[in-house]
Specification:
5 strands, elongated, 2 domains
């Protein structure tokens, strides 16, 4: 049996002891922000109906809770982070060095097949990219090279539930538009890759 880390255990315990209506509401809201919502809409509606029709029946509530928890586990296995359901990804044009005065920070983002690597810091974007490349060279061997598809030079700011991303002077307009399309196509998966970005 695989060992769970502390954060995975906390997620399972939170799901296990949350009110079934709250779990259903959070799961519905999360799925409504994904392309998969249509696949689950009938099931979500059915659970709501079951809970409304059996408000005094703990067996029905437990059955629905078990099914919702199984769905949430499956979503996590697909790479979704359900804690990001209320987060927003905002692409906001281009910025220059003056954006530091607004609280923005520099970030370099490399995208590969299903992977994302980033670094943030005070150095210029080219220097940050060099640091990230060095880290990746150390981590990946020549026998198992990392295949990067894109490199992006960005500014970012976290404001409440919003992650605002802007292109830098080093980023081309075409690259930024491609990144924006990737992010907007599945913002929750994109946000999960940048969860620890601060």
């Amino acid at each position: 049996m695989a060992k769970l880390n502390v954060s995975e255990l906390a997620v399972l315990l939170t799901d296990r002891f949350s009110d079934v209506w709250k779990l259903l509401s959070e799961t519905t809201f999360f799925l409504s922000r994904t392309a998969e919502f249509g696949f689950y809409e009938d099931e979500l509606r059915s659970w709501r109906s079951e809970l409304q029709g059996a408000s005094k029946n703990p067996e029905v509530a437990q059955k629905v809770r078990t099914e919702i928890i199984a769905l949430r586990k499956n979503l996590r296995l697909q790479g979704y982070d359900l804690s990001l359901g209320r987060q927003n990804l905002i692409f906001d044009g281009f910025r220059n060095d003056a954006s530091v005065n607004e609280g923005f920070k520099r970030m370099v983002l490399f995208l590969g097949d299903g992977t994302a690597f980033w670094i943030s810091g005070d150095e210029n974007h080219i220097t940050l990219a060099g640091y990230l490349e060095q880290q990746l060279e150390i981590r990946y061997s020549r026998r198992d090279p990392l295949r990067l598809r894109e490199k992006h030079y960005l500014w970012f700011l976290r404001r409440g539930n919003d992650l605002i991303i802007s292109g830098s002077d080093t980023e081309t307009k075409e690259d930024y538009e491609r990144l924006k399309a990737i992010g907007e196509a599945n913002s929750l998966l994109f946000l999960s890759k940048l969860k620890k970005l601060r």
